[in-house]
Design brief:
The complex is a heterodimer of chains A (456) and B (245).
Chain A: E1 18-24, E2 31-37, H1 42-51, E3 57-60, E4 76-79, E5 86-90, E6 95-98, H2 104-111, E7 116-117, H3 129-134, H4 142-145, E8 152-158, E9 164-168, H5 173-179, E10 188-195, E11 197-198, E12 203-211, H6 214-223, E13 229-234, E14 246-254, E15 266-267, H7 279-292, E16 298-302, H8 304-308, E17 314-315, E18 326-333, H9 335-351, E19 359-364, E20 378-386, H10 391-404, E21 408-409, H11 419-425, H12 429-439, H13 448-452
Parallel strand pairs in A: 2-4, 3-4, 15-17
Antiparallel strand pairs in A: 1-2, 5-6, 6-10, 7-11, 8-9, 8-10, 12-14, 12-16, 13-14, 13-19, 18-20, 18-21, 19-20
Helix pairs in contact in A: 9-10
Chain B: E1 3-8, H1 13-24, E2 28-33, H2 36-50, E3 54-58, H3 67-77, E4 81-86, H4 94-99, H5 101-129, E5 132-138, H6 149-169, E6 175-181, H7 201-214, E7 217-221, H8 225-234, H9 237-243
Parallel strand pairs in B: 1-2, 1-4, 2-3, 4-5, 5-6, 6-7
Classes of the chains: A alpha+beta (456), B alpha/beta (245).
């Protein structure tokens, strides 16, 4: 332990808080050895922050960031999962105050039966509230509901010196905007006041349409703009004229009760062998998946969880990619560049023979409120890139296409963005750096990602 | 009959986990400890998750003077039958205890003297309705280990105290259960290397709750520690002393 953090102080009389841990990313690309504290009480969190005098620290929630946003190799980390208490809930307004370790899944389980929904449910419900704010997550309703930051009334933030400040958009707009989407670099959140959304019906009416090619997809989204929920599944490997074919799913509230949930939960108990997901098997899977929906489309009733979190039904699904791991790439392109840009991105993936599963296409409608928020109006594409010898080269190509189109890469997924790319994609980065200098002049809060992006 | 559980050590990992179990069963919860703010957060969480009443109370195991008044106050707050879950404790390493006599004294007072005093103070209340008392003992109390024999001794002393206490109050329907706990994944065991057969707080509390419904006497939790400790207790000294278990 002393080799990793020679400058850390251990309090004499107080119990030690630290254990040597290797924190992994969801993409299973790399492990980051660090000293981790797992506070169960607020004063333990304060103690952890204050004891990192010469080193750095980052908060780590559920470990669902695909890249290195919540890793701090050679430094310290604070695991927030046991700071997971619900504090207050106002039945009239839907305002929930909770600690940062509570997951979206827990909030859904407790409040959906009472008629309240997490306002911007991301692709997985297994993320913590703190992590959700740090990445300003968005859901399949982004075009109307925006990202999470728009639904946060206030939060309590423990700064690098251990002091806690209550922050709202009105009381401290700069700190509020720096923390939303700020990948944990302003401090550690200790409580969040979140406005839950009233559920309009116990289930969703889901319409699925088969889309033949990319242009039709973008038109399809715009035609369905009134639907509160919309997402597209693209066959990333469909070539030529069929480029960008897929399935457009739109949903709205339904009065009827939800159908019974799936009986068995699958899980990946071990890593899949490396050959399982290859261009042939994935192409075949994608083609079959596309044909699941009849050419004329279909319509059915589904429960919220089933529609919102399809992958959560398979425990540890990231193991499907095997030990080598995978990168996740997600970018948003402004509407005027979308057709051309998405085409180039998909062609780049296919040219390099990457075995990318279904890609996710999303129409985004609202700018995120954070200085480093990802969301902006346009179209977002997310896809998996199995790690191999040329995946870095592919990611660089995708970054360049994104930059060319004036787009932006999502930090929650990112493992490869260059510092130059970051500066171009996040115009408020200088503003963020200034704010950070005021709340954390010694840069105690720092992660592998922040250093990689040139933020320090 | 309505049940109330008083969790002594209401901010501890196992105290929290056991409170979740009893709240899920619809019991009223009283959380006692020294950190008022943390206790209140825990109480709020129980109320929101389980729609039950949960109240925070001040309790300092080492402040023997106030134990009787705490018992009176609890009796007034409790609804129905009052039961106790004793979850507080401190576990500094042996080396630290040797270096700091004050630390050593504090540990013994918390783990043993304070616990015995609280149980004595609550005896009249428990005897009224025949409540259940569940106490966190430890496998470390079954045979002194070089690395924490003072801690083990404090738990062993508590175990013997409970045996007599149970015998005394059995005729009033008081059921006493001493859980011989193996390591639990908590703040106490987080620093240092992970130990084998470490239980998660939720699994431990679920088992403890189940045992609390009917069992009395002593029980190993998790169960795997029964044969393990049997073997460890049977080791001759010359072997045990060399092993540093």
């Amino acid at each position: 332990m002393n080799l990793i953090l020679p400058t850390m102080q251990q309090q004499q009389r107080e119990e030690s808080l630290w254990r040597a841990q290797t924190l992994r990313d969801w993409g299973q690309l790399r492990g980051a050895p660090c000293l981790a504290a797992r506070p169960e009480r607020l004063h333990e969190l304060r103690q952890a922050l204050r004891s990192v005098t010469g080193g750095t620290l980052i908060a780590h929630g559920a470990g669902r960031s695909y890249g290195d946003a919540a890793q701090n190799g050679g430094g310290a980390a604070v695991l927030t999962r046991r700071l997971d208490r619900l504090l207050t809930f106002d039945e009239a307004s839907g305002l929930l105050v909770a600690e940062p370790g509570v997951t979206v899944a827990e909030i859904l389980a407790l409040f959906l039966p009472r008629g309240w929904l997490f306002p911007t449910p991301p692709g997985t419900a297994q993320v913590t509230l703190g992590g959700a704010i740090a990445n300003d997550v968005h859901g399949k309703n982004q075009h109307l509901a925006g990202s999470l930051g728009e639904h946060v009334a206030w939060f309590d933030l423990m700064l690098a010196d251990g002091e806690v400040q209550r922050v709202s958009a009105a009381s401290d707009p700069a700190l509020f905007a720096a923390t939303i989407g700020g990948i944990g670099l302003t401090g550690v959140i200790t409580a969040v006041a979140l406005r839950l959304q009233r559920v309009r019906g116990p289930s969703l009416r889901l319409r699925r349409r088969r889309i033949g090619a990319l242009d039709a997809f973008l038109d399809g989204f715009l035609a369905a703009r009134q639907a509160p929920w919309a997402v597209g599944w693209i066959d990333a490997l469909a070539p030529g004229a069929a480029l960008g074919r897929g399935i457009l799913e739109t949903a709205e509230a339904c009065d009827e009760p939800a159908p019974a949930p799936r009986a068995a939960r699958l899980a990946m108990p071990v890593q899949a062998p490396g050959w399982l997901l290859n261009p042939f098997s994935v192409r075949a899977f994608n083609a079959l998946y596309w044909r699941r929906v009849a050419a004329s489309g279909d319509e059915r009733r589904v429960g919220y969880e089933q529609f919102l979190f399809p992958l959560d039904g398979i425990g540890q699904w990231n193991r499907l990619y095997g030990r080598r791991g995978f990168h996740q790439f997600q970018c948003v392109l402004p509407e005027e560049a979308a057709t051309r840009g998405l085409r180039r991105l998909l062609e780049a993936v296919q040219q390099r023979g990457s075995a990318s599963f279904l890609a996710v296409l999303k129409w985004m409608g609202r700018e995120g409120v954070g200085m480093l928020s990802f969301a902006r109006p346009g179209f977002s594409l997310a896809l998996d890139i199995p790690a191999c010898s040329h995946s870095r080269e592919l990611l660089l190509a995708l970054e360049n296409i994104t930059r060319d189109c004036g787009g932006r890469i999502y930090l929650a997924k990112d493992s490869a963005l260059t510092p130059q790319g970051f500066v171009e994609m996040y115009p408020r980065h200088a503003e963020f750096a200034v704010l950070r200098q005021t709340v954390d002049p010694r840069r105690r809060l720092s992660s592998d990602m922040s250093r990689r992006l040139g933020l320090g | 009959m309505r049940e109330t559980w008083l969790i002594l050590g209401g901010t501890s990992t196992l105290g929290r986990a056991f409170a979740q179990q009893s709240a899920a069963a619809g019991c009223r919860i009283l959380l006692a400890g020294r950190d008022a703010a943390e206790l209140e957060r825990n109480a709020a969480d129980l109320r929101l998750r389980h729609d039950i009443e949960a109240t925070a109370l001040h309790c300092d195991a080492r402040d023997l003077e106030h134990h009787r008044s705490l018992a009176h106050a609890t009796a007034l707050l409790a609804e129905g039958r009052l039961n106790l879950f004793l979850a507080f404790g401190s576990m500094p390493g042996q080396a630290e205890c040797d270096a700091d006599p004050e630390l050593a004294r504090a540990m013994v007072e918390t783990n043993f003297t304070g616990a015995a005093s609280l149980l004595t103070a609550f005896a009249p209340v428990l005897c009224q309705d025949g409540g259940t008392v569940v106490v966190l003992g430890s496998v470390a109390g079954e045979r002194g280990r070089p690395r924490n024999h003072l801690y083990g001794a404090s738990k062993a002393a508590l175990r013997v105290f409970l045996q007599g206490y149970a015998a005394r109050h059995a005729k009033h329907g008081v059921r006493v259960l001493c859980l011989l706990a193996g390591p639990v994944d908590s703040g106490m065991t987080w620093p240092g290397r992970p130990l084998p057969f470490t239980a998660t707080p939720q699994r431990f509390a679920a088992r403890a709750w189940k045992l609390a419904q009917r069992a009395s006497g002593e029980a190993h939790v998790p169960l795997v520690w029964a044969p393990i400790m049997g073997a460890i207790r049977a080791l001759p000294d010359r072997i045990f002393n060399r092993l540093d278990l």
